[in-house]
Amino acid sequence: MLEIENLKTNFNTYDGVVKALDGVNLKIKDGEIFGLVGETGSGKSVTCYSALKLLPKAGEIVDGTVKLNGEIIASSDKVTDGTNYASFSSRFVAQIIDSLIIFLFVLPILIYGTEMLFFTVILPVLNLLYYVYFDSSKYKATPGKMFKGLVIIGPNGRLTPYEALLRSLLKILSGIFTLGIIFSLIFFSDKREGFHDRFCKSHVTSQSKQVKDDRRIREIRGGEVGIIFQDPLSALNPVMKVNEQIGEVLRLHREEELRSLSEIEKISLYSSKKFTLSPGVEFTIWAFCLSFFSLFTMIGQFSFGLPFLTIIFLFLIRDFLQKDNPESALDIMVLDSLSKVKLPNPKQIAESYPHELSGGMQQRVMIAMALAGNAKMLIADEPTTALDVTIQAQILQLIKDIQKENGMSVLLITHDLGVVAETCDRVAVMQSGKIVEESTVDKIFSNPDHPYTKSLLDAIPKGGKKRLITKESNMEVVS
Amino acid sequence: MSYNILEINGLRKHFPVKNSWGSEIGSVKALDGVNLKIEQGKTFGIVGESGCGKTTLMRSLLRLVEPTSGSISFNDESGFTDLLGLKSRELRKFRKSIGVVFQDPMGALNPRMLIKDIIGEPLVIHGQTKNIIDRVVELLENVGLGKEHLYRYPHEFSGGQRQRIVIARALALEPRLLILDEPTSALDVSVQAQILNLLNDLQKKYDLTYIFISHDLSVIEYMCDRLVVMYLGRVVEKADTEELFSNPQHPYTKALLSATPSFDKKKEKIMILGDVPSPISYHDKEGNELATELTEQEKLEIKSIEGKGIDYIVRSSLNEVLPLIRISDTHYARIRILND
To answer: Is B49 close to A388, i.e. CB distance below 8 A?
Structure first.
């Protein structure tokens, strides 16, 4: 399923290069629970972040590949397969052109509205027509009322044909640019791919591979590979309801299923709610409308206040105008994914915010989110460290159950050897960026080969008052 | 000669719950009648899940929260002290005799103070400034650090070393009792082992008494002589460590012991189903007792677990308050007596 070959990741710090991973080899088979154990700083989490290209800016993959089902999803950032990525200078030029366009054309339209279209598109065309069809050298420009102040006039009231053509062409060019931008914003607006990327594609062709790669990795994250993090409360968004957060995953990764569901059931795709704004916004609108209405009434212009009165009226009868929609396809799928993780009354939980749930429930919601994109592989990064033992047992049982039901593979990253012993099929022990031992659970706990594994096992307090065997661990690898 | 260094009787702490108008509508019973006797020179363990009142108990021992009712008495060479009767100046003096080590060492150390200032601060506060640097060095050497660490900041140390510094500071005023609030839960196993060894050495050297709060049962089993299990503000079982681990009586203790991950795959598992009930009890509700019927989630979980051959207990069944029953001289538990 997941294959990591000779992965080397470095972190560039002010003190030098930290070799976080130093040649990691891992193979996770289909439908197995694989444990990755190690101390703080041994590179467990960095392994999972490099595999999904989630490394912070200072981190970089130096060597090695990560394959998911045989497809390379992450490899070293250096050139390996003969593809030329965009050079710095071409990216720089593209960025300058980008910002020029935005400052010259996009911002005016955003600020002054679509009337700017008239100045940037229609007017240049008219100008051109004007000078192409009339011989401007003979014709003294005396613009009519309509074009007064708009038509280009030279210092002596005339323009040479060449000048006129040049100016018109410039204007037309700007118009075309603006139109292109507007159209691309309207019709191709794909938030997953920045405007910059799209623009660069036409100029710097070699970057398209990177764009493609980026798109693919975004499909994988949360889609084929789900992740659960250590602290559910900081991983969940505190200002979004649970159903919005799970809905986001579903929209991004299971759009087609949503569409087909809505067609079959003949229900709306996303929204089932009546039109409501947040209380603050509603209050502002109310206050605004009321004050304007009363202002106009006071100054004796009742008719000007009528539109505001209408808005207030519409707000009042809003509930009668709107029908109660049935559940949308999104709602159904959100509830479905919540009930998969054995949450009671999913409807109530879907409508609550993360802080209203207990730690165990939050972690269940996280698992539901990770699985919402039909994950074939689940990466659990210390999923139970923040939980109590009894809740931990519940969550581990849940992960095991789901793994059995879906037949997916699980990569369990933890520092608790007991958790590994209970849940995993195979284990790898990491020490300072290397895997020092990898075998089945039974073997590693009954008969460990590597001295480091032995020392880890010895350090666990057991019954009896024997002095614990310790060893100084040095984890910093700075070169 | 062994005597009880600390005796706690009927300790209650109820936090008021207020509605938006500010009037009291209920209370959180963080501690609800706790009786403990802690023997001098031994390690006393407190186990329980988050929200069961461990930390409130610890804080009320230091009078960082004022208990609602009950009594705490502290005995040492100088005599008997009633902790809850102390005036603020006496209290300040008294706090010398109890040291605390908190869970997160980085949070407990001021990042802008040098180590010598951090460890010397309690000495300065209590006016023991004679040869203060020598005393600080002695304390550092006690915990396995040295002179060279005096002029450094906390961020220059690893997690284990920071915890050592916190321990050194706690020992600065030569306390008789040390409260250890999850001292190793933020550490790796190998570092944890070093800290536990250190604590054992210090105990022997200074004849200290420890109150060890943790949710890691393997650490508790290793460290403690006597143990209480707390659940929702009450002590549900107390016994000597060996007795408790070999012969747990209360269903929650049984489940807790079985929930600890272990290498023994054959170990019998008892799952606890359901979520922790809210400890808030409202005044207007009748009886103030928590419901003992099955909740929705428990029904769901029972359904999912049925037929898998896993034993389980249900949270709502633990809500009932039973009397503490003597099982042997040293072993008490809140269990139902069967008449037949």
So the answer is: yes
